Amino acid sequence: LYDRRREYHIVILGAGGVGKSCLTSQFVHNEWIEYYDPTIEDVYRKVIDVDGRSCILEILDTAGTEQFSQEIYMKAGQGFLLVYSITSLSTLTELSDLRDQILRIKEANSVPLVIVGNKSDLEEDRAVRRDRAIMLSQKWGRVPFYETSARKRQNVDEVFLDLCRQMMRADVSG
Ligand code: GDP
Ligand code: MG
Question: Which ipTM value was assigned to this complex?
Answer without folding.
Answer: 0.99
